[in-house]
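Session log. Operator J.P. requested a structure for one protein chain; no other inputs attached. Running the standard single-chain path with token output.
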Amino acid sequence: MLRIRLARMGSTHRPFHRFVVNDSTRRPEARNVDELGMYDPRKKPPVLKLDVAKAEEWIRKGAVASDRVIAFLKKAKRAAR
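Structure written below.
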């Protein structure tokens, strides 16, 4: 099963996250199927870049989004209006 989740990147005390589509049976460090965007909470204001159309396409194909990703999708949709 495919999952849309946040992957932590960056170094110690300087994290940022990528929105990735990954197989749930593989390790988190494994190669990603697709990258949908990024989130950097350390910037002021926090940077959220998410390809909503691509994410919705993966969800239509059967990928399951994590709770956190669903919250970011809603926030990205509001910002796009």
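Operator note: The helical segments are 52-60, 67-80.
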